[in-house]
Description:
- The chain has a two-stranded antiparallel sheet with strand order 1-2. Strands 3-4 form a two-stranded antiparallel ribbon.
- The chain is built from 1 helix and 4 strands, in the order ββαββ.
- It has one helix spanning 69-122, and strands at 37-41, 47-51, 139-141, 144-146.
Amino acid sequence: MSDPERPTVEVHQPQPITVHPPTTPIVPAQSPAVPAVASVVLPDGRIVTGYATEPTKPEPVAAKPPVSRAAVNVALGGVGFLAVCGGLLLLTSFIAALTAFVTQLITLAAVIFGGWIGVQVFTASGPTGGTTVNIRKAVFKRNHFHG
């Protein structure tokens, strides 16, 4: 009784291969793509066999396309132009700062000198050995004071 939902299983039996002796002897041929097998005898008598491998070589670097002289000149000119503009900006800033500094020094000198003059004028402490003239009693004659 077979179940319609179950698939049928087929069994395959392996078939033996019959080998006929060759008529010509088989000679191993070395393929040019396969490297030769090397055997090395170690000092303790063991033999190690393996393929000799060559060191891997790095792939050659692709040649860079040449850069045109005009492109190099334009790039260097642009860098030079930016350097000059930056230098002029710094020079202008330096001149403005120097002008402000000199202006502040002049203002400071004027304040100090003006203060010194003010102190000299307002610190008259009475007679200091000069002649005191009472203007109310003075008589003016020919630009001379007579008292």
